[in-house]
TrEMBL record:
<protein>
    <submittedName>
        <fullName>ABC transporter ATP-binding protein</fullName>
    </submittedName>
</protein>
<dbReference type="InterPro" id="IPR027417">
    <property type="entry name" value="P-loop_NTPase"/>
</dbReference>
<keyword id="KW-0813">Transport</keyword>
<feature type="domain" description="ABC transporter">
    <location>
        <begin position="86"/>
        <end position="319"/>
    </location>
</feature>
<dbReference type="GO" id="GO:0005524">
    <property type="term" value="F:ATP binding"/>
</dbReference>
<keyword id="KW-0067">ATP-binding</keyword>
<dbReference type="GO" id="GO:0016887">
    <property type="term" value="F:ATP hydrolysis activity"/>
</dbReference>
<keyword id="KW-0547">Nucleotide-binding</keyword>
<dbReference type="InterPro" id="IPR003593">
    <property type="entry name" value="AAA+_ATPase"/>
</dbReference>
<dbReference type="Pfam" id="PF00005">
    <property type="entry name" value="ABC_tran"/>
</dbReference>
<dbReference type="InterPro" id="IPR003439">
    <property type="entry name" value="ABC_transporter-like_ATP-bd"/>
</dbReference>
<dbReference type="InterPro" id="IPR051782">
    <property type="entry name" value="ABC_Transporter_VariousFunc"/>
</dbReference>
Amino acid sequence: MNEFTQRLNEVENHLQHNDLYLGYRRLIDCVLDFGEKSFYKEIISYSDLYYNENSTSDNKAKKALELVEKLKQVPPPSFQKEETLISTNNVEKAYHRRNFKLHPITFDLKSREVVGLVGENGNGKTTLLRLICGELKPTSGEINYHFSNAKPFSFELKTKLVYVPQRIEVLYGSLMENLQFTLTCYDIYSEENRLLANVMLARLGLWPYKDLQWRQLSSGYKMRFELARTLLRRPKVLLLDEPLANLDILAQQIILEDLKFLSQSIRNPFGVILSSQQLYEVEKVSTEVLFLEQGKLKIQGDTNELEGDFTIVEIDIENTKEELLTALSKIEIKQIKFNGGSYIAYFDNKISMNNILSEIGKSSLKVKYIRDISKSSRRFFVN
């Protein structure tokens, strides 16, 4: 079974189980991968139905499944192989007046990867993004761009490497006008221009607002629109600085999920590096998480001597510390810390999460939250 057919089957499964929102978004992804105007028209017509308050869920699912069947009847698009897009080799940046230094950074970014960049404010996340996009020059080390032969810091390179800062630029005019203008800059005109702009508005959840002016959007929807405008440029690398800052928790999860899905496009895959304070949400979708502390890089899989000997669990309970220790006495907590409202418990690394959950199940502990952070960047934030 080819990749395109497999994705269509996944869409079909979502729709059959009444997960219309996810099925709808993933169906648009398949239409974008196919890249034919006839199917752009089909998904635009379906979007009108999808957002029609008088349309039932059963009717929406039925019409979507009909479109899935049509897509199954056409030859699938060619699958573009994964490739290394960027390699950083001991990249450093020193700010002598600020007494801050970004220490040697080495990592690769491949197509279809989402790399999360986390750490407290002032530890170098934005500096690293600006180095990669060419706004800053490194003090030492090098950044290699494998997807283009264009010179560093050139306009040609920046057409395929897009940096979206936390504070996005002010735009004027309607959403459609801005998207269509973006497409004309990339030689897409006439009917295809209008169709593709509409499809991208639908994909980023902006269909109900497509007739609005940019200034009428909330800050969260302005970020969604900026992503829509950026993705029409078909970037090879997308750099996002705190894209979740003005979004509620549900919108954060959806945007991150969408970035993961869209970056895995069959025809136009790209790589993503995003900085964020939303650690758990970022970890769910990231291929790799880079943690910056005082300008020094730690990688999600890294362990130091202490952490390598332990299974580390974060637990929030309504009980006392003594009650927690008693409940888990048979598997022995090696070390325990209180960190921002929850306990961080260290067990011998031979103790699995299943063992811990089993003992908790036998106890009367009132657990509000529990998570294994042995391999999570969360462990770097523990005091």
